[in-house]
């Protein structure tokens, strides 16, 4: 079968022929219906050095996957060949307290996981291929009616990651509150929709690209602010009564976006850094608002994926996608790098 593989750090992936996977006991092979192209893959191809992560190439890219059950290993119950499924992509040890509640993105024993804190497309073979080996049936969530694998795929990461980040801040997103979304790409355009679908917050979107701000408006954002020197004042002015943002979600994570997030925040707010551009934010008693909570988040849990898929199936959150055949997957990454993708690129083998 065909697979788009990253053979070493700081290189472009290549499309090669590999053996078809065969499921062992408890495992499932999924025929890939859609594999999203995430900006994290660009970080893997361009920036990551050997030794930075406990796992590395060679592996097949694609950590945002959905498709149909193709083959079941011995002992797998409750799934049928041909059934549409989404793949929860964070594959932990399966037996620590966190994994037992489905929070495998924060596995306490990553050394015992098949790819420590990674997963398919992140150390192990991912979904940019005809078939994907899923090492345990517990990672699969059956697709609800109304959702096809091509649209479900981006919901497993570009949807699930902001869903988790928004959900943990729900108590602060009351009527009268403001949420700011910085970076309206694959994750950010879904963050805007998730905020509108699950909270009463006013939503302010920030991006460097005019097309991204148009997309934010189309997704229901209440105010759009171009990134730049005027952005801190404009974002604050766009928050309810100019008091600042109750919740800022930074889908870029650079020095400048984190500084913008801190300056736009309200006392008692949340500043959540999701983007991994590698920026830092100096924190001192006088530099950030009182009781501002600052955190990074990684992906989301399996129960949260079930909720995310429900939002998708009911049409409350709809990913804007551009599809690419597997032979053109490299073009999807090039287009994302050039800022030409509206929403998410999804590779359809
Ligand atoms: P994307 O390329 O689809 O979108 C990024 C958006 O940010 C683009 O619209 C771009 O124009 C905008 N942008 C860039 N610089 C900006 C700036 N200075 N100010 C405002 N906007 C700016 O990327 P994506 O796939 O949505 O991923 C976003 C980030 O999140 C990446 O760093 C990715 O690696 C990371 N990520 C993190 C997790 C996690 O679990 N923490 C999961 C998935 C992706
Ligand atoms: Zn990702
Ligand atoms: Zn675990």
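^ structure tokens above, recovered residues below v
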């Amino acid at each position: 079968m065909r697979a788009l593989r990253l053979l070493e750090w700081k290189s472009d992936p290549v499309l090669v022929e590999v053996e078809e996977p065969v499921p062992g006991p408890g495992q499932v092979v999924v025929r890939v219906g859609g594999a999203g192209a995430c900006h994290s893959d660009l970080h893997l191809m361009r920036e990551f050095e050997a030794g930075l992560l406990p796992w590395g190439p060679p592996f097949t890219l694609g950590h945002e996957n959905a498709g149909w059950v193709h083959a079941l290993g011995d002992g797998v119950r409750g799934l049928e060949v041909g059934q549409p499924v989404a793949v929860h992509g964070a594959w932990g040890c399966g037996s620590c307290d966190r994994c037992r509640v489905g929070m495998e993105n924060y596995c306490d024993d990553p050394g015992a996981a098949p790819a420590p804190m990674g997963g398919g497309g992140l150390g192990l073979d991912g979904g940019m291929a005809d078939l994907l080996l899923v090492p345990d049936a517990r990672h699969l969530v059956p697709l609800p009616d109304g959702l096809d694998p091509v649209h479900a795929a981006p919901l497993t990461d570009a949807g699930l990651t902001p869903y988790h980040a928004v959900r943990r801040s729900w108590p602060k997103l009351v009527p009268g509150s403001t949420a700011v979304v910085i970076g309206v790409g694959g994750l950010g355009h879904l963050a805007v929709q998730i905020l509108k679908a699950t909270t009463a917050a006013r939503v302010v979107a920030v991006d460097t690209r005019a097309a991204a701000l148009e997309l934010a408006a189309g997704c229901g954002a209440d105010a759009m602010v171009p990134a730049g020197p005027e952005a801190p004042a404009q974002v604050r002015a766009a928050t309810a009564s100019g008091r600042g943002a109750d919740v800022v979600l930074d889908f870029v994570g650079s020095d400048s976006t984190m500084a913008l997030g801190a300056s736009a925040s309200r006392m008692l707010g949340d500043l959540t850094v999701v983007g991994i551009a590698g920026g830092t934010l100096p924190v001192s008693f006088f530099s950030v608002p009182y009781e501002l909570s600052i955190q990074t988040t990684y992906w989301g849990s399996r129960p949260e994926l079930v909720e995310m898929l429900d939002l998708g199936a009911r049409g409350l959150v709809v990913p804007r996608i551009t599809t690419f055949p597997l032979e053109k997957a490299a073009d999807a990454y090039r287009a994302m790098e050039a800022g030409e993708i509206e929403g998410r690129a999804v590779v359809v083998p």
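The radius of gyration is 20 Å.
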